[in-house]
Amino acid sequence: MIDNVKELDSDGWFFDGANNGISVKYKFPENTSTASMLMETKIPVNAIRVLALVNEMDLNYLWVPFCKRTYVNKVLNRACKVCTSEMYFPIIPDRECVFVGEGYDRLNVNGTITLLSRSVD
Questions:
Q1: Which residues does residue 100 pair with via DSSP β-bridges, in sequence order?
Q2: Which of 38, 58, 82, 120 could serve as 98's disulfide partner, Cβ 3.0–4.6 Å?
Q3: pTM for this prediction
Q4: pLDDT per residue as tens digits for the range 25-38
């Protein structure tokens, strides 16, 4: 967890733009062939309701744009799951990704809740 939070707080993020209040940044970590994307937004809603939505990964297709289907492969602990998501995008062929998602309660540290998702090789 500490390494993941350090990565989020590190330098080197390139601002890609903002749309509908969502800021998008990206970077290419050294010595890897991957790209990282950081999306940030303020959500003026009850945090418990949002976290309940995120926790129910099997229902993501109901509210995540371009999501065709999602399912949970394995629950690692109460704040970490391995999931599969099938996405469809205009023009680009359908994509399937397997990822691990984690949630961090940082409310006492800096007033945020961090949701981190990384693809699984």
A1: 82, 118
A2: 120
A3: 0.61
A4: 888 878 888 778 88
